[in-house]
């Protein structure tokens, strides 16, 4: 077996920037363009988890030819153009897999278990960072897992395929000790994306226990070590981001102590490697958790620490989100002035627009999230009408892809309406949330809806309230 520490996936061919693709992006940021790609994919029934980093790798020339799913999406976005027009190399010139028709099964195009390049691997994978000479990975199984992951209908089934190749749940002691390479780093990064994608669609409850196994494997990879410093850095960042993602699943499913432990683990990893971006992310989530756990002063301090760390990173949108985290803490302290000032700062920073410095994990943060977080602040301060206006706007603005967030904002709206003396409208909004709970599993949303039901109990005679209460009482509860 050839070592996985070969220094380059294409030692004889340095990547050439894809200037044609960069021109097509125009004035949009990589994150905005990635969002446009995802929208185009949904229009034709494809599923791609495109993000800003994928766009960056295409423009840098690291992806010489996209996989077949991305090919269909790009040709849909730019009708009348060929892959060559978009700056890609002909598929026949990309080593590692022969050209095949888009509908041919993977086995027809795969002559060996190791790919020579990652550009054409797997219809559903955003990009591949495997070391092409590391032949210990079974790519046929990898394709099967990706398809199972992307096409499964429910959170439980999808979670069963969460662990990507290279992050199996077996303990490190059961495997031979060896240096790890870019393949494992890529698998780790993909695990983070998979968790985020599933959480967006289904919520945290069905995912948390499954996600713990990849996290244990990630830290086992760190213990095994790597030869190249670039791989070591990717492993540390990936393990930290995975700890944050698993922490969020714990947070959203009501396991606050577990979440606090995972966030602390990510923070320690960030500080060991002086990774400011990871540290800011860990403090951001710590602030959010502290607010939800009833520790508002800690929320303020964590958000302020995150802002100090993040300021040199050059992302106004990140600073905007961190200001919202601070606003939530001030609201918890019943400091209306401090909350309003932080909200004003968050909006001003948001209006500066996206930038190339925006972190990949912030793909969820748009106008809908800003409105939703502001609604939560006003709700905490007891200004129900104002909170309801922002919650309604958030639910209206949210991309349909984010089922969990639509349920969250609508649950917030229902609660604000109920507490603001509008029981009939609250019941209607609550019913919408119940409709979404067939695909979204979030203890946090369930708890909000239970609170709304308690507020509505004295208003059974109002239009729609009795029906909502009966349906809520008969709906399944999270295990």
List the defining traits of the structure above:
mainly alpha; globular; disordered N terminus; TPR-like_helical_dom_sf; Tetratricopeptide repeat protein
What order do the helices and strands come in, and which of them pair?
Blueprint: H1 19-25, H2 30-43, H3 52-59, H4 68-77, H5 139-151, H6 155-160, H7 182-202, H8 208-224, H9 229-252, H10 256-272, H11 276-292, H12 296-310, H13 316-332, H14 336-351, H15 367-380, H16 384-397, H17 403-419, H18 423-436, H19 443-456, H20 465-474
What does this structure look like?
With 479 residues, this protein is mainly alpha-helical. Among the domains are: 9-90; 183-274, no CATH class; 400-479. It is 59% helix and 0% strand. It has helices at residues 19-25, 30-43, 52-59, 68-77, 139-151, 155-160, 182-202, 208-224, 229-252, 256-272, 276-292, 296-310, 316-332, 336-351, 367-380, 384-397, 403-419, 423-436, 443-456, 465-474. The longest helix has 24 residues, at 229-252. It is globular and about 70 Å long. The model is unreliable at 1-12 and 95-177 (pLDDT under 50). Residues 1-22, 87-131 are annotated as: Disordered. InterPro entries: TPR-like_helical_dom_sf. Residues 1-11, 108-120 have a biased composition (Polar residues). This is Tetratricopeptide repeat protein.
């Amino acid at each position: 077996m050839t070592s996985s520490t070969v220094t380059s996936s294409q030692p004889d061919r340095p990547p050439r920037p894809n200037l044609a693709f960069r021109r097509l992006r125009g004035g949009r940021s990589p994150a905005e363009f990635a969002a446009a790609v995802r929208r185009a994919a949904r229009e034709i029934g494809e599923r791609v988890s495109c993000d800003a980093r994928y766009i960056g790798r295409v423009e840098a020339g690291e992806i010489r030819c996209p996989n077949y799913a991305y090919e269909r999406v790009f040709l849909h976005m730019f009708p009348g153009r060929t892959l060559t027009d978009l700056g890609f190399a002909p598929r026949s010139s990309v080593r590692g897999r022969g050209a095949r028709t888009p509908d041919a099964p993977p086995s027809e195009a795969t002559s060996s278990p190791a790919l020579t390049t990652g550009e054409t691997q797997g219809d559903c994978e955003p990009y591949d960072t495997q070391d092409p000479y590391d032949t210990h990975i079974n790519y046929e199984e990898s394709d099967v897992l990706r398809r199972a992951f992307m096409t499964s209908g429910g959170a439980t089934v999808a979670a069963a395929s969460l662990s990507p190749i290279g992050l199996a749940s077996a303990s490190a002691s059961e495997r031979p000790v060896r240096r790890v390479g870019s393949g494992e780093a890529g698998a780790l990064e993909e695990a983070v994306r998979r968790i985020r994608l599933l959480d967006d669609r289904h919520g945290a409850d069905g995912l948390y226990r499954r996600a713990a196994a990849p996290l244990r494997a990630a830290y086992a990879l760190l213990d095994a070590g790597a030869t190249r410093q670039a791989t070591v850095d990717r492993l540390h960042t990936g393990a930290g981001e995975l700890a944050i993602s698993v922490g969020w699943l714990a947070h959203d499913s009501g396991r606050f102590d577990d979440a606090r432990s995972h966030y602390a683990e990510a923070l320690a990893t960030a500080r060991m490697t002086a990774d400011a971006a990871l540290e800011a992310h860990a403090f951001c989530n710590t602030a959010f958790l502290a607010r939800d756990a009833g520790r508002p002063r800690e929320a303020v301090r964590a958000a302020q620490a995150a802002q100090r760390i993040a300021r040199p990173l050059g992302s106004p949108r990140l600073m905007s989100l961190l200001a919202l985290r601070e606003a939530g803490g001030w609201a918890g302290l019943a400091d209306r002035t401090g909350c309003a000032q932080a909200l004003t700062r968050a909006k001003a920073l948001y209006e500066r627009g996206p930038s190339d410095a925006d972190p990949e994990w912030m793909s969820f943060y748009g106008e809908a999230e800003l409105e939703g977080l502001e609604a939560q602040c006003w709700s905490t301060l007891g200004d129900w009408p104002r909170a309801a206006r922002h919650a309604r706007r958030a639910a209206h603005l949210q991309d349909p892809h984010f089922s969990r967030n639509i349920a969250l904002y609508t649950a917030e709206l229902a609660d604000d309406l109920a507490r603001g003396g509008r029981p009939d409208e609250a019941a209607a909004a609550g019913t919408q949330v119940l409709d979404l709970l067939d695909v979204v599993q979030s203890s946090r949303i369930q708890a909000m809806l239970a609170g709304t039901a308690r507020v509505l109990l004295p208003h059974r005679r109002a239009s729609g309230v009795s029906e909502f209460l009966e349906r809520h009482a008969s709906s399944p509860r999270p295990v």
